[in-house]
Structures are given as structure tokens and as C-alpha cells.
Specification:
- It is globular and about 35 Å long.
- The chain has a five-stranded parallel beta sheet with strand order 2-1-3-4-5, with helices on both faces.
- It has a single domain, classed as Response regulator (Rossmann fold, 3-Layer(aba) Sandwich).
- The protein is of the alpha/beta class and 116 residues long.
- The model has no long low-confidence stretch (mean pLDDT 94).
- It is 45% helix and 21% strand.
- α1 links the parallel β1 and β2.
- α3 packs parallel to α4.
């Protein structure tokens, strides 16, 4: 069965790149540019990995991580950010995100995380 990946990022270019690459590698990928809709999807369905941008309009990645982990404590969340020293990054990790990946990122780092 294909691994299911959810990507939540307000940058369409990031969503499209991740989706294209991961689908070509055989993964099932759902993408949301709206943070609140992505959060609802993450809570409503099961994913092998949730890739989540840190800085987004409406709700940030730390808030969404906390919300998801409260309802799904075993969720595997990877935070993407251009600002790894942002206090929100620590807050997201403290809320239950498994790791942080700095933008621009190498797709191989995401693949390594998927297979962990």
C-alpha cells in the first residue's frame, strides 16, 4: 500500500514541487495551501507523514502541530521553514513535531524522513 503524505504550505511552488516528486516516486500526496483546511484534513484522515510549513497566514505550523498531536498523538510531522531559529520552530518541536527541515531543502532529506 502506498504511503500517504499530507503537505500544508502557503507557497504553491513548494506544494507543486513536493507533490510532483513524491507522486513520481509512488507516494500518495494531498496538498493544501490553506492552513486551516490542511489542519482539518490532517485530523480527519490518517497519513504516514505530514509536512507542514512553519510560517503561514491564519494559523502557523506550531499551532497546527499542537492541534494535530492533541487528537493524533502518533502523527509524524516534519516542519519546513526558512527560519530554523524562529521561536515558533522550537514551539512546533515542543508540541510534537518530529523534526525540522530548513528551506530550501533537498528532497532526499524528506525521503529519508518518510522511510524512518
Amino acid at each position: 500500500m502506498k504511503k500517504r503524505i499530507l503537505v500544508i504550505d502557503d507557497e504553491e511552488m513548494i506544494l507543486n514541487a513536493i507533490k510532483l516528486i513524491l507522486e513520481d516516486m509512488g507516494y500518495s500526496v494531498n496538498c493544501f495551501s490553506n492552513s486551516e483546511e490542511g489542519e482539518k484534513e490532517a485530523i480527519a484522515n490518517d497519513y504516514d507523514l505530514i509536512i507542514l510549513d512553519l510560517r503561514m497566514p491564519k494559523k502557523n505550523g506550531a499551532e497546527i502541530t499542537k492541534s494535530i498531536i492533541e487528537k493524533k498523538p502518533n502523527a509524524k510531522i516534519l516542519i519546513l521553514t526558512a527560519y530554523p531559529t524562529d521561536p515558533l520552530a522550537k514551539k512546533a518541536l515542543d508540541s510534537g513535531a518530529k523534526s525540522l527541515l530548513k528551506k530550501p531543502f533537498e528532497i532526499s532529506k524528506i525521503l529519508d524522513f518518510i522511510e524512518k
